[in-house]
Structure formats: structure tokens, C-alpha cells
Amino acid sequence: MPLNKQTILLLAVALLAVGCTTTAIDPNEKSHWTTERFYKEARTARMDGDYDEAIKLYEELEARFPYGRFAEQAQLDTAYVYYLKRNAPLTISSANRFIRLHPTHPQVDYAWYLKGLVVFASDNSWLGRFNRTADLGDRDPALARASLEAFRELIERFPQSQYASDAQNRMIELLDTLAIHEVRVARFYLNRGAWVASVNRAKFVIEHYPQTNSAEAALGVMIVAYTQMGLDDLAADAHRVLKQNFPNSAHLN
Q1: Deepest of 36, 53, 103, 244, by most Cβ within 10 A of its Cβ?
Q2: Which residues does 107 contact at the CB level (< 8 Å), separation at least 6?
Q3: Concatenated DSSP letters for 17-70?
Q4: How far, rounded to the nearest angstrom, does the alpha carbon of residue 97 sit from its chain's CA centroid?
Q5: Segment 142-146 mean pLDDT
Q6: What are the helix (H) ranges across the chain?
Q7: Cα of 64 vs its chain's centroid, Å
Q8: pLDDT of residue 127
Q9: Half-sphere exposure for 157 (CA within 13 Å, toward CB)
Q10: Which residues of 154-186 are buried (b: 16+ CB within 10 A; e: fewer)?
Q11: What is the mean pLDDT of the chain?
């Protein structure tokens, strides 16, 4: 039986509606993504090295689904991706945000660990530049000191953390490097006749890094500086401490 015009019109409308519905549920349309889908796609982007896309997806996930375990994990993963990007300021700020929002989270120790790791991030880090440059001006130890404090907080707050042992080893390296830095600055002042500034730097090493090998060199600097200032008693005291702790030191001659 032939269809009348009204029936044909109804069929056309129905087909159009089906077509629109099919388009609306496009699986690649983010408006229909679940938290799991956002997190999976962000993780894939991170694994593929597309860090900017990963951060974008983590941020979209948190914006659309601000509560729950996926949003929390996205915040921590964002800090990790910034670490992979060698972006120390954003790594630290993201880690600090996670620590502030989730102080009792099972993985909050990792946020502290990331804060400490930033100084070791790459050859362009402060530690990487340390032995390659002769210019004291571009070796600001602030980041190294911040990393040291982050590791110290990690160990004190979470002594059983899986990251505590590595943090302890990295603290030793940081302490040695910071002490070397201070001695170099002390010698810098010593070579320019800035005796007081030289002594102050050397004393800083003795007070803050007494267990490092640089303590010996710091005492040697103090002996020279005090002698140049005519402070023989103080020079003798520094000499006595040096001899007591480093009897074979070349600085005794």
C-alpha cells in the first residue's frame, strides 16, 4: 500500500532524530567522558610524553569532577608531570597544593618527596650547573635548601615511607654540595681581602654543615682570615680545632 505524505513526513522526522541522537553520543566528545575516561586519557598522554596534554586533561578532570579519588590523584599526578617537564616552581606549587588539601592522604609523602627531587631534575638543575660554572652569581642555593627542607620534613613526618631512605641519601649529597658552595664563596671573599665576609661564610659551614668534609676547608679559611685581621687568638682557636679534628690537614702548615 503506498504511503501518504503525512506518513512519509513522520518517517523523515524520526530518521532525523535518530541521526541527531547518534551524533550527540560521540564517544570522543569530552562532555560525555567519565572521570575514569579523563584519567585514563591523561595517563596515556603522560606515558606518551605529551606532558602539556596530560596536564590539560588532569585540569579538565578536576574542573568537571572536583571530588573523589580521581580528582585527588589528578592533583598529585599534575605535580609529577611538572617534575617530568623540569619545571621546579610549578612542581613545588602543585605539590604544596596537594599537601594543603590532603594532609592525611596515603600518598602525601610522595608530594613531599617530589618537592625534594626538583633540585635533581636535570643537568640544567642547580646541582648540574654547580661543577660546570666558575661564576658564583648564578649558583643561588635557595632551591637546594628548599629541597633539603622538603626531604627533612618527609623523614620526620613519615619515617616509614618508602621514599625515606632515598631522601636521606639525597640529603647527604645536598649537605655536601651546599657546604662546598659556602666554602667557595668564603674563598672568593678571602681572595678579595673581604676578611669579615670570608669568616662569616666559613663559620656558617662549621655551624650548619659540621659533619661534611668542607668543615676542614672552612677552618683553614678562618685561620687565614683571622690572621690577616690581626686576631691571633681567634686564629689560634681555629688552628686548635682544626688540629684536633683533622690532624693531617694541609691547612695546618
Answers
A1: 53
A2: 76
A3: HHHHHHHHT-TT-GGG--HHHHHHHHHHHHHTT-HHHHHHHHHHHHHH--SSHH
A4: 13
A5: 88
A6: 5-24, 35-47, 51-64, 69-84, 88-101, 108-117, 126-130, 142-157, 164-191, 195-208, 214-228, 232-245
A7: 28
A8: 55
A9: 20
A10: bbeebeebebbeebeebbeebbebbbbbbbbbb
A11: 86
Binning the chain into helix, strand and coil, the percentages to the nearest 5 are 75, 0, 25
> Which residue do the cell numbers 693531617 mark?
248
pLDDT of residue 134: 43
Domains and CATH numbers, the chain: 35-130+139-162 (1.25.40.10), 183-253 (1.25.40)
251-to-219, 237, 239 alpha-carbon distances in Å: 8, 14, 9
Burial (Cβ within 10 Å: 0-12, 13-18, ≥19) of residue 124: exposed
Cell 606515558 locates to 47
Amino acid at 91: T
pTM above 0.70, yes or no: yes
Gap between the Cα atoms of 144 and 125, Å rounded: 10
